[in-house]
Amino acid sequence: MTVTAGARTAARTRSAWVRGFAAAAAGALPALAFPAPSLWWLAYVALVPWMLLARSADTARTAARDGWFGGAGFMLAVHHWLLPSLTVFIFALALLLGALWAPWGWLVRRLLGAGAGPRQAGAALVLLPSAWLMVELARSWQYLGGPWGLLGASQWQVTPALRLASVGGVWLVSFVVVLVNTCVALFLAVPALRRPAVLGLLAAGVATASVALWAPRPHARGSVRVAVVQPGVVATPGARFAREVALTRRLAGTHADLVVWGESSVGADLTSHPAMAGQLASLSRQVGADLLVNVDAEKADGSGISKTSELIGPRGVVGPTYDKMRLVPFGEYIPLRSVLGWATSVGKAAGEDRRPGTRQVVMDTGALRFGPLVCFESAFPDMSRHLAGDGVQLLVAQSSTSSFQHSWAPAQHASLAALRAAETWRPMVHATLTGISAVYDAHGRPVGDRIGTGASTTAVYQVPLATGVSPYVRFGDWVPRVALLLVLSALAYEVTRRFRGPQPDDDLLPVGAPPRPVARAGATRPAASGAPTASAGPTASSGGSGGAKATPAAPGSRDARPEESP
Known about the structure:
The chain contains 16 helices and twelve strands. By secondary structure, it is of the alpha/beta class. Strands 1, 2, 3, 4, 5, 6 and 12 form a seven-stranded mixed β-sheet that branches. A five-stranded mixed β-sheet has the order 7-8-9-10-11, covered by helices on one side. The longest helix is centred in the N-terminal third of the chain and has 31 residues, at 159-189. Pfam families: CN_hydrolase, LNT_N.
């Protein structure tokens, strides 16, 4: 008997491991919708295998575990290019962040599992996308890694999706993508509920088409010439600076209005290096345009290292400078360094924490007002939205990604500029050290050609400007707020239902419960458990004069309950 019990435990353990790996693989599938594969259409069905697995779970705990491991698989797949930098930390972080999807996995089983009825199907079409948004919102907190890999970001090159983003940000795109996945899963898993699944798909299509056709659009107004300087792969900060100077000199006579260098393009504080500051001012005079550079160095006042965007004119620094506010965990600082500082010995974690800035700024060349963002910050929708609300005409992101040249990271990063432009109705320039550099107009459409990874060159873009305030800028993050309200309302309903007990008209049965018997005309209600039942009356068929006797209800069955008064 002991051997049998041990064998059963081992079998359950093996089954749990197999199911865990299956959930992780299913969760990793949506990563293929992002650049570099850019299989954007896959996003609309990529969640289906994960959802079908979670709904098949025999217990709520198993479904939650499916959500957890699936989330870990997604996090690992969409951030796999961080493995050389984070080493073993990437697996720990994936498991930590994957836990955010555990409630989502439980909810999939609760609403799509055995015994699902029309009301559950209707609730699933609203609550599963809403719950997904809660996960995206939670992990968007910069201290949990930030909003890299939001599902809606996979649709950066799809025009109708960009129109949705102008109304509700990337959050609305994510909601629609998860809604479509939910409809497909419902259609495949519960044949009896295919009608609400089809209606959900039609609703998603009609809503998207309506926004694409009739939502307000930005108004074109003039253009500006922006030059991007991309030095390419260079061994040292000094050699990089020399290469950037040489490339910038080539821009003389191009009539650029602004010249943009990438993140960490200057390796010394300009206050303590007047010769370097003078060289940049001289470049500005030669080119006839202000230069936007990014200084990655120890501050002259000894306050620490920061990544500072500075606008250089013919006479030196112009206007306010901007210190990067949202730093990359482990890349630019180590959380709880006193505990996790050993990460520097096993990966490429920051040897010294950068100092974050405290406020966003608007820079002005006299002819152009623009808002700077540094690298990772282009992933945060709220930062570009606030700059648009402050009246900028152009968004400028200075980036690097030099450590990830041969990965999916450069393409993923460049694609974010299209979303930010569409959300805010402000064109965006994404300038890097080593590529991919790209420019997008106020609709999120590409302007000119991208500068690929490894290229060492310059490019001048005629960037169309636009006016107007997008619905997303005007109303902010209304989509996640509505989603939160829906989730909290459902939670309150669930708690209330459990306290008051099941009601006769409540068809939201616990998952796995058998359906209630349907009363037939002429049938009598079964008597209480253990009591004899009356014989059925004659049937209405032409040949029958008598009927079979009813079978007594088994003790403990659903039908063995006392007669209810009318």
